[in-house]
Amino acid sequence: MRTLLIVVLAFTFVVLPAGAQTVRIDGGPWASSVSNAIDLAIDGDTILMSTGTFYEVLVVSNKDIAMEGGYDTNLVDRPGGNTFIDAQNGGTALWFMDSSCRVDQVHFVHGGEIATLAGGGSLLHRSHVDFINSSFSSNAAWYGGGIFVGVFSTARVFGLSHIFTNTAAVSGGGILVDGRCEILGD
């Protein structure tokens, strides 16, 4: 009887509250945030994110990883919900440095502000990133309000991706390309 009670108590600590956002590395550990998962990830890992909104500013540096949104809270099925990264106007929502990444079904909002120099939604610095079924909206920067593709960088935007209602004080409200960019349909 005592063993059963311990198992039941341990299980209750794993149950997540309704509406909680969850994140983990596929086949690996659960993480306390998307930023924490990025820190834990090694080349080849895929970060799984549940539907909902994560209030974070993210940096991916020297990694070859994938980030996938739209999962249920158990991170098993993709029922088609939306995963948002909301930077709350606190800087670039997702900054890539010296990385090669795939971002699938993640939406970036409120990145940067007019004081942000480049890439309110995402900034690519010596990086290659595929954005699939992802969107950038309500982001702002001096250059490339939605996305800034820097020199020696490549962005590929395809699937049901959208770049809209972003603001740039100088140039490139939706996207500013100083490197290479491909926008592809389905």
Q: Can you give a write-up of this model?
A:
The chain is mostly beta strands. It has one domain (2-183). It is built from two helices and 20 strands. The longest helix is centred in the first third of the chain and has 11 residues, at 2-12. Residues 1-19 have low confidence and may be disordered.
Oligomer: single chain
Low-confidence stretches: 1-19
N-to-C CA distance: 57 Å
| Strand proportion | 35-45%
Count of individual helical segments: 2
Task: Please tell me the total number of domains.
Answer: 1
Number of strands: 20
Task: Give me the secondary-structure category.
Answer: mainly beta
Features:
186 residues; mainly beta; eight-stranded mixed β-sheet; five-stranded parallel β-sheet; 2 helices; 10% helix
Give the topology, please:
Elements (H helix, E strand, L loop, with lengths): L1 H11 L10 E3 L4 E2 L2 H7 L5 E5 L1 E3 L3 E4 L2 E8 L11 E4 L7 E4 L2 E5 L2 E3 L12 E4 L2 E5 L2 E3 L2 E4 L3 E3 L4 E5 L3 E3 L2 E5 L3 E3 L2 E4 L3
Parallel strand pairs: 3-6, 4-7, 5-8, 6-9, 7-10, 8-11, 9-12, 10-13, 11-15, 12-16, 13-17, 14-18, 15-19, 16-20
Antiparallel strand pairs: 1-2, 1-3
